[in-house]
Amino acid sequence: MPLMRPLDPAFPIDRQIALETGPVVLVNVFTLDAEDEQSFLKTWQDDAAFMKRQPGFISTQLHRAVGDSPAYLNYAVWESNAHFRAAFTHPEFRAKIAAYPASAVASPHLFQKVAVPGICVG
């Protein structure tokens, strides 16, 4: 299982998933050793395929840092926090994340859209 390093240590993912809200966007930054990239990509693909089959899943996208940095950013859109919580705590998913390379560090955090007048809608 990858080491979980909260983006905000005062409010880690385990506290976030307890809230009743939605829709939500999961943002997860992964850091890892360069030699583990292929293993990471295969494991992430397996995880994403599982999540894609779960109720409330809307979409996901994986990004790789530019240059020589083996850092990745994933975001996934969910209809509600309850849907994400059900998928994230599902025993099959919890078993899958054990396959991540030992060097992987995940920093998951949930977000909601914010309305900014004249710029973006909430």
UniProtKB/TrEMBL annotation:
<dbReference type="InterPro" id="IPR011008">
    <property type="entry name" value="Dimeric_a/b-barrel"/>
</dbReference>
<protein>
    <submittedName>
        <fullName>Antibiotic biosynthesis monooxygenase</fullName>
    </submittedName>
</protein>
<dbReference type="InterPro" id="IPR007138">
    <property type="entry name" value="ABM_dom"/>
</dbReference>
<dbReference type="GO" id="GO:0004497">
    <property type="term" value="F:monooxygenase activity"/>
</dbReference>
<feature type="domain" description="ABM">
    <location>
        <begin position="24"/>
        <end position="114"/>
    </location>
</feature>
<keyword id="KW-0503">Monooxygenase</keyword>
<keyword id="KW-0560">Oxidoreductase</keyword>
<dbReference type="Pfam" id="PF03992">
    <property type="entry name" value="ABM"/>
</dbReference>
